[in-house]
Structure formats: C-alpha cells, structure tokens
Amino acid sequence: MQRNAIILEKNLTAGEVGNVAGILMGQIAQINPEVYLDSEVTDADGVRHAAIRYSTVVLKAGSGQIANLAKSLKESETISSCVFTATGQSLNNQFEVYQEQIQKSELENLKPVGIVVSGPDEEVRAVTKKFSLLK
Fold first, then answer.
1. CATH value at residue 121
2. How far, rounded to the nearest angstrom, does the alpha carbon of residue 101 sit from its chain's CA centroid?
3. Are the beta carbons of 5 and 64 closer than 8 angstroms?
4. CA 66, 71, 76, 81 torsion-angle sign
5. What is the pLDDT along the chain (135 residues), one digit of tens a residue?
6. How many domains does the chain have?
7. Could you list the residue range(s) of the whole structural domain that residue 122 is in?
8. Helix crossing, 63-73 with 121-128: angle to 10°?
9. Sheet with 80-85: strands ordered across
10. What's the predicted TM-score (pTM) here?
C-alpha cells in the first residue's frame, strides 16, 4: 500500500495552504502517475469524481524541517518527493524566471513552504511521524 503526505509550512494562510497543496499534489501525480487511476470514476448521475488511489495526509512543519526532509529524501529510491518554495509563490506566470532562480539557489535560500512525499505507507509514515496534522 502506498501513501502520500503533504507537509506545509505552519504559518501559511488558508489560501496559501490550498494553493501550495494543489501545486504539490499535481507534481507528485506527474512524478508517480499511479497515484491517480488513469480512467474516470463516475457516479450513477454521471458526475466525475477524483480517482486518487492512495491516502493523502496534510501535515505542518517549519521551513527548516521541510528543507531537512527534502535533503534527506533526494537520493531515496522508494520515496518520491518534491518541494515548493516562497520563491515560487512570489512569481506569478513567470516560469522562466522561476526556473532560473531555482537552478542557481540553495534550498534554504528559496524558503521551502511545502513538500509532498509519496511511497510505501510504512516508509512515508516513518519519515513524517514527527510532524503534526494541519488543522
């Protein structure tokens, strides 16, 4: 069984939480396409429903904790991860500028505001157990 965890910076506003979580979930679906079913799930009324296969939990942490987790997972062969930063938040529809700034900067200087991890349930639980549930 697989598991996804989104760990967000604890001081984000409600709108930022939704934005960052959405961006990260979209990216993990691109990295691991099996997170979502590749066909539609519809109800008896013909309304399409989300076809996510694995549990996803949303947790909170400090920016430094997010950076440390990202660095610890960058060589993992079993857990996929991806971060989003305050740098990304500040650049609206400026992908080329975003890409350039990311490529020339160290993670801490980009101020991580979220990370998504996806992998075997027990392993994801182990690397995220120190974080609290986002409420």
1. 3.40.1490.10
2. 20
3. no
4. positive
5. 999 999 999 999 999 999 999 999 999 999 999 999 999 999 999 999 999 999 999 999 999 999 999 999 999 999 999 999 999 999 989 999 999 999 999 999 999 999 999 999 999 999 999 999 999
6. 1
7. 2-133
8. 140
9. 80-85, 112-120, 2-9, 55-61, 132-133
10. 0.94
